[in-house]
Amino acid sequence: MNLDELKEKFSVKELDEVKVFTENEEFIGTILPSTGKKALTIKMKSGYNIGILAESVIKIEKTGETEKKVFGNLPFSQKGGEGKKIMKIDGLPTISILNTGGTIASRVDYRTGAVSPAIEQEKLITNIPELMETANIETKMISEMFSEDMNFTHYKKIAEEIENEIKEKKPKGIILGHGTDTMHYTSAALSFMLEGINIPVILVGSQRSSDRGSSDAAMNLICATEFISKTDFVGVGICMHESSADDNCVILSGTKSRKMHSSRRDTFKPINDVPIARINFETRKIDYLKENYSKKEENKHLILKTEMEEKTALIKIHPNISSEEIEFYEKQNYKGIVLEGTGLGHAPVGSKGKNTEKNKKNLEAIKKLSEKAVVVMASQAFYGRINMNVYSTGKDLLTAGVIPAEDMTPETAFIKLAWLLGNYSEEETKRLIGKNLRGEITERSDIRGFETE
Amino acid sequence: MNLDELKEKFSVKELDEVKVFTENEEFIGTILPSTGKKALTIKMKSGYNIGILAESVIKIEKTGETEKKVFGNLPFSQKGGEGKKIMKIDGLPTISILNTGGTIASRVDYRTGAVSPAIEQEKLITNIPELMETANIETKMISEMFSEDMNFTHYKKIAEEIENEIKEKKPKGIILGHGTDTMHYTSAALSFMLEGINIPVILVGSQRSSDRGSSDAAMNLICATEFISKTDFVGVGICMHESSADDNCVILSGTKSRKMHSSRRDTFKPINDVPIARINFETRKIDYLKENYSKKEENKHLILKTEMEEKTALIKIHPNISSEEIEFYEKQNYKGIVLEGTGLGHAPVGSKGKNTEKNKKNLEAIKKLSEKAVVVMASQAFYGRINMNVYSTGKDLLTAGVIPAEDMTPETAFIKLAWLLGNYSEEETKRLIGKNLRGEITERSDIRGFETE
User: Fold this and answer.
1) Among chain A residues, CA nearest to B21
2) B150 lies in some domain
């Protein structure tokens, strides 16, 4: 039995509240619009959707109907905000939503099943009346692209758009709609580029497109709007779900976060850091605010520094890596390299003199590279800090000229290195890469003592 | 005041139980041997050690003395097991400990402060009498190297040593002492190489060298010995701390684990999987055992397959990556490439035709590469599954010939690809890379329904 036949048999339709019985299990939830013909999609209380194969369904009981209202986790109407206008209310702060594309501004192409960045900006906003109750929303579509396609030139364009928006509209804060794939690279780039920024710039993405039943777009946008309205935070942050349920959003640091799951809504996690804030979606209250977050200051002004060195690379170290792979970057005159090493900051360089010719060549290649370029070591373990003074491997690499990235993520180290090389001398870059500029490095706490584990 | 002066002033020495007062805080624990002169190292109840700067200490109160016995988290005596012999008791199972080096077999060089792989194998064992009470221990030092120096030839050597040990000593199981940096790469390689293995092979590492106060070596070795003695598990696993406290160890899958912290003892985490078992260190009981773990079978025999294709690479995708970096691998005639992509399995390939020349060149380079090599996509998000049917970027990459790694870690995908290419045809490699061979891929559960999130 296909899905249409199933719905007809049990007289149920989209948005009906139902109990669905299969041979071994029972699901309680709301029927959502389906994109295919094989599976019945149910939104469960947990906030998650489940697809149940139509052929495995034995019985469906209708228990009620959900009103088709616009809500953080119910679908946008396919017709969306047509006819509605973006309202302005005196006395509310202005918040600008700049959209770059990504899932948050996407819709499903029901012909191919694929998602394209094509939803109209106005529709995205008017579909969420909550936004207009909290702030006067200005919107602008600055690009229509997936975040995986972004490169340094796009970061520069976004930073310039932000500066223009601040000059023209004087918003209390800016929300940047962005794909999630590389959101942490962009947030790091903007953190460095927007020196002295005195308003919040919050990147918001979603893991399900805005016209899908399970979209997290509305809730993330509402939480970011509430956060900007209700706090004096300034700087670059990310606003996404805290858990897979639709209960809270968190604001995470623009320089100390990572996408840690390919599909879950709570994919962004702080790395070697705590969240900046938690927003309760039901009460719209700021539940938690980090101590010593960066606050609005008098006489602080934005200085754009948008140059990035194109010849910067990120190499993942792994067993059996060959010296030719490293030499390539020296031959191509790269100016900066982040090695994503193992553990405390290691690479196969044949320390102790007991190892293979292959590994010794790697050490030679890294030495030669660091004579021409700035070579930085981050860890593929992600959590914890680089410490190249513990093992002889680390010491050999330090001697070869490699600079520890402290507790920066490899992604932030890569962006920071390209940015430093774009705006400072090589000498200055070497001095600044291990210094904390935008919260990207946690200082060791020397006074209280340190955890040796 | 330096450390020696401090100890003299308050009449305390190593292994004394103490209360240490600084201006704002109070620490309770046991004084551990220190490697420097500046910090007093205290083992706290939590199992963690803390270094307290000598100059910040106001007062130390002695509350007792810890007996200097050999124990999971107390230091080996510098003189270790000298004079002791490895005992054999009738009726106990035989367990072979093969050691490759790494921190677990290391000692601190107190002159330089660095750690070298140099502790004697016999000393390592006789220092832990618990091992000899549970099993008759055979030991062999097969190398003295850091795991970051291991490459494919070392995996082959280890696999051959394991086969020899099985033939000669017929052990109930094998413990492989190994550095933690690349332990998950080695465990994956052995999982594939040791086809049909009918005993457990448990990799054990430590995050602190065996002669240090805070070493986790003894506890991890004891737990691995208990696990091998008390269960009928067969296959390759990893045994390390479950949390930073010294309460439990976990056995993790050899193909679905990762080092996730540069220094914590509970650094290894299951990725898209649950642990195989939990061993309570106090009771020595197996607290938890996964359903459907691989068990000993009649008539199952080890077939060594140790070839690995040298021309295999692992490339981390990132914003601004250039097509030249990808073309290098095609020009060098690489046979296999794992792309560690973003999100669901993406790379900057300029989908939708709206993007830069730069990104289009990347797609061309990947197309050309996959005509000559097997190109596989894993995710730098680590958790979750590759799904290249959702976005046009993924679809374009599938069309270019890229094969999804499903929910494998990039590290396991890299090892598996090199192993497949070493032992099978290109055609077979393409067919097998996305199929589950050693628990490295979780099957989608099609029957119950699937989570669409």
Assistant:
1) A448
2) yes
Report the phi/psi class of residue A273: left, alpha or beta, with left for phi > 0 and alpha for psi in -120 to 50.
beta
Q: Could you give the CA distance from residue B163 to residue B419 in angstroms, rounded to a whole number?
A: 18
Return the structure tokens found at A355: 């190892």
| B338-359 tens-digit pLDDT | 999 999 999 999 876 556 889 9
The mean predicted confidence, pLDDT, of chain A is 87
Q: Residue B25's domain is classified under what CATH number?
A: 2.30.30.520
What type of residue sits at position A109? D
**pLDDT tens figures, B183-201:** 999 999 999 999 999 999 9
Q: In the prediction, which pLDDT does B124 show?
A: 67
Backbone dihedral region of A235: left (phi > 0), alpha (psi from -120 to 50 degrees) or beta?
left
Task: For residue B62, give the H/E element and its range.
Answer: strand B57-65
- Using a CB-CB distance cutoff of 8 angstroms, which residues of chain B are in contact with residue A318? 182, 185, 314, 411, 414
Predicted local distance difference test score (pLDDT) of residue B39: 78
Q: Which domain holds residue A352?
A: 312-432
What pLDDT shows up at residue B88?
77
Which element (helix H / strand E) includes A376? Answer: strand A374-379
Q: A201-215, B224-238, B426-440: which has the minimum mean pLDDT?
A: A201-215
Choose among A51, A317, A393: nearest Cβ to B146. Answer: A393
Residues A359 and A424 in one domain: yes
- Whether residues B148 and B259 share a domain: the answer is yes
State whether B236 and B383 are in the same domain: no
Check whether residue B115 and residue B237 sit in a common domain.
yes
Whether A244 has its CB under 8 Å from any CB of chain B: the answer is yes
- Please report where in the chains the tokens 């093992």 appear, as a residue: A391
More confident site: B209 or A149: A149
Residue B453 lies in a domain: no
A230 and A164 housed in the same domain: yes
Chain B contact set for A355 (CB, 8 A) = 145, 149
pLDDT bucket at A362, cuts 50 / 70 / 90: very high
Asked if residue A164 belongs to a domain, the reply is yes
Residues B8-51 pLDDT 10s: 899 998 888 899 998 888 888 888 766 567 778 777 766 566 77
Looking up residue A129, the CATH number of its domain turns out to be 3.40.50.1170
Q: What angle do CA A118, A124, A130 make, to 5 degrees?
A: 165
Give dist(CA B250, CA A176) in Å, integer.
42
B291 and B320 fall within a common domain? no
CATH code, domain with B391: 3.40.50.40
Residues B152 and B183 reside in one and the same domain: yes
Is the complex ipTM more than 0.90? no
Please report whether residue A83 resides in a domain.
no
The last residue of one of the domains, among B256, B287, B304, is B304
Strand partners, B261: A383
Residue B238 β-bridge partners: B203, B252
Interface check A55 vs B, CB under 8 A:
no
Q: Are residues A317 and A273 in the same domain?
A: no
Write the CB contacts of B36 (distance below 8 Å, at least 6 apart in sequence).
Answer: B3, B113
- Interface A-B, measured as beta-carbon pairs within 8 A, has a size of 291
pTM for the whole thing? 0.83
Instruction: Provide the number of structural domains found in chain A.
Output: 3
Rounded CA-CA distance B204/B202 in Å is: 6
pLDDT at position A333 is 98
